[in-house]
Amino acid sequence: MSDRPRLLIVDDEKGIREMLLEYFGQQGFDLAEAADAVEARAIVPAFRPDLVLLDLNMPGENGLSLARWLRETSPAGIIMLTAAAETVDRVVGLEIGADDYVPKPFDLRELLARTRSVLRRMTAPRPAGVAEADPSGRRVPMGRCVLDLDGRRLVDAQGADVALTSMEFDLLAAFAANPNRPMDRDKLLELAHHKRWEPFDRSIDIRITRLRRKIEPDPSKPQTLRTVRGAGYMFVPEKG
């Protein structure tokens, strides 16, 4: 990532794009804009954004479809811009792999804080708590994959990269630092640098479900990331 983060704004409302371009331009970002998914797909390969602010409700190809494409083709972070009533779309967006969401209408200062938070998570060497992990254990077996803490990568049995969002990596790294220790949602959010906590927030549960699909031999019967009733989740390493 360059010293000036590259931010792509995708929204069909010209007024919102202009407002965000002016505000984030004043905050030291390199910027590009797209009015729809077609323009965004054309811009991404050359601009190589570090993060995309993505409106979900656009004519033509919607934001969810574009988010799925971004997650498959780009390492960029994704913050979804959603209407207050789009709860289902927010859940689907998180399942696809978006890093965060901000409901419309939004406060520019909050959006900037969320943007910087995602960018920090993307570049952080490890989440809080990982320093206590065994320094020799920089590659941690997790189910049918291996977590490379130094490379911030998850690889499968064939050595191929498994796509992860920045928060998904931070969650796995937090689990790796705390094996066989139940952790509730508050602790997981803290360790994964995701300070926002709202009543009934289930973003952690959604991400755990996604991670199970990636690392568990049978995600319907998780053995690596286990649910601890009344306590949260626990990483259970395989016994050597």
Give an overview of the whole structure.
The protein is α/β, with parallel strands linked by helices and 240 residues long. It has 2 domains: 6-123, Response regulator (Rossmann fold); 130-235, Orthogonal Bundle (Arc Repressor Mutant, subunit A). It is 39% helix and 20% strand. The chain has 8 helices and 10 strands. A 5-stranded parallel beta sheet has the order 2-1-3-4-5, with helices on both faces. α3 (63-73) packs parallel to α4 and α4 (87-96) runs parallel beside α8 (203-215). It starts with 5 loop residues before the first strand and ends in a 5-residue tail after the last strand. Mean pLDDT is 85; it is low at 126-136.
Core attributes:
240 residues; elongated; 20% strand; 3-stranded antiparallel sheet; 8 helices; Rossmann fold; single chain; 10 strands; alpha/beta; Arc Repressor Mutant, subunit A; 2 domains
Q: How would you summarize the topology of this molecule?
A:
Blueprint: E1 6-10, H1 14-26, E2 30-34, H2 37-47, E3 51-55, H3 63-73, E4 77-83, H4 87-96, E5 100-104, H5 108-123, E6 139-142, E7 145-148, E8 153-156, H6 166-177, H7 185-191, H8 203-215, E9 225-228, E10 232-235
Parallel strand pairs: 1-2, 1-3, 3-4, 4-5
Antiparallel strand pairs: 6-7, 7-8, 9-10
Top CATH class of the largest domain: Alpha Beta
Number of domains: 2
Distance between the termini: 38 Å
What's the mean pLDDT score? Answer: 85
How many alpha or pi helices?
8
Radius of gyration from the CA trace? Answer: 18 Å
> Structural class given helices, strands, pairing?
alpha/beta
Order of helices and strands: EHEHEHEHEHEEEHHHEE
Helix content: 25-40%
For the largest sheet, list the strands in their spatial order.
2-1-3-4-5
**Overall morphology:** elongated
Largest sheet: 5 strands, parallel
How is the CATH topology of the largest domain named? Rossmann fold
Secondary-structure arrangement, i.e. CATH architecture of the largest domain:
3-Layer(aba) Sandwich
CATH homology-level superfamily of the largest domain: Response regulator
Strand content: 15-25%
